[in-house]
Amino acid sequence: MIDNKNKILQAERAVLVGVIQKDQTEAQVNEYLDELAFLAETAGAVTIHRFTQKLAHPDSRHFVGKGKLEEIKQYVLAKDIRVLIFDDELTPAQQRNWEKDAKLRAIDRQEIILDIFITRAKTREAVLQVELAALQQMLPRLKRLWSHLDRQRGGGTMQRDAGETQLEMDQRKIRDKIAKVRRDLAEVVAQRATQRKQRKRVPLPTFSIVGYTNAGKSSLLNKLTGSEVLAANKLFATLDPTTRRLALPSGRALLLTDTVGFVRRLPHRLVEAFKATLEEAVQADFLVHVIDLGSPERDKHAETTLQVLTEIGAGDRPVITVLNKADLCDEVERAQALAAYPDAKLISTKTGEGLPALLQRLEECAASRDEHMTLLIPHDQYAMLSKLHAGATIIHSKALAEGTRVEAFIPTRLQEACRVWAVRE
To answer: What does pTM read for this prediction?
Structure first.
């Protein structure tokens, strides 16, 4: 297993680097670096400065050009900085060249995100998912490492053969670990699938809370259900899906699930690794899309979330849009947001503003899936009565001489079977 305490950054002073490529503007890249700074801060780094450079194509050796290379080297030497964080993905060769030519450790956005995931993983599933992603990242870097060591030793046939043998051994070890982690993860995923089937036996409507990281998803789950899921002003505070039963004012019940937060350019290996988490969104009847109302990147974050949902096969799910953190915005900002998202519910998980209206919307969605029926179940139909208690939302039940009178919200799969006992009122 990976060591959750083995962080890449531990209060390191770091410099951020972004390259403005031909399809980007300087403003866009600075916005990306703002988010990278938040990621770095979450991982434990202290960002001191940022560098940007316009390039048609990234340099193959150092990602930035020679002039910018020298500028960075002079700056970090004067400020005693040893870590560079790039917003773009670096190759193993580029990382090695920075270490060789500038005595600097160069890491990228993907490594920062992986580092955060490592520290946030708590359950067995999350730990396995992160370990798989870390091993997949490590494998292509082995060859570069051994080539570098071979050159340091000065070459020679025997040395190269030894290096190649060791490389093959290391690759085999990592592939074996990957295979084992995948087997272990498959078992955990199967367990989650079993749990999901068990929930479906009680066919309550399912709602998954989705959105950009730090939008307030966990806070919403806590506020509505009285849960105590970790909710912090940090990226990726929640990695494992948490499902809670929510009783609506009408007496109807539903299942509400908090999911991992999305982020721009989430590494594909992490998207793959966290498929089990994201499957909660795919399997849900409805999605609750939480958007940080006050974020200057509000619309881009919303777009990223919807894009990821489409990629994982949940793009066709009905969506309830929620504009959170209304307490931090003035009337003008509120009006502008509602103009952009006219069907959205404006809320504050901190003050409780707008939550009654949101509950009413959840009620309407749940009602669209169930049918309100009053039934008179004969005493000899105890099996059907048992199914109703297991799978329907019972509002009222009373034993009468001719049978049991039940008022309930009936799920789709039971409706047809119940109509024979429906009471016409």
So the answer is: 0.68
